[in-house]
Design a protein that fits this description.
The chain is an alpha+beta fold. 25% of the residues lie in helices and 33% in strands. It has a single domain, classed as hypothetical protein tt1805 (3-Layer(aba) Sandwich). The model has no long low-confidence stretch (mean pLDDT 92).
């Protein structure tokens, strides 16, 4: 079993990686430092956005980022708010990139 990083450590590392590529990332909701889950909202600055969450494949045990919601930014904000209602430990990050880069599929972001 692979040791799991704390949420705060993962968020700090992710934000640093984005910063190295000149991609702004803001913590819009600070969740539990140790065990909180993370949502990443990608804002393409054209009124559209997408929300990504980490998911488990129960058959393989693999973890992957999936799209929870996409479309108008207001709808994505509402999806984030609903998830916070279910999980008070949840982190919400907002990435702003016109090119749509979120770096979630980059190697090393396990």
């Amino acid at each position: 079993m692979t040791p799991r990083l704390t949420a705060a450590f993962w968020v700090a590392a992710y934000r640093k990686r984005l910063d190295l590529h000149g991609i702004p990332c803001f913590v819009t909701r600070h969740g539990d430092d140790t065990s909180g889950s993370v949502l990443v909202k990608l804002n393409t600055l054209d009124g559209l956005a997408s929300v990504h969450q980490r998911s488990f494949d129960l058959m393989t045990g693999d973890r992957a980022w999936i799209v929870l919601a996409e479309g108008p930014e207001a709808e994505c904000d509402a999806a984030c708010a609903r998830q916070v209602g279910f999980d008070p430990d949840l982190w919400v990050l907002e990435v702003e990139d016109r090119a749509g880069r979120h770096m979630l599929d980059a190697e090393g972001l396990g």
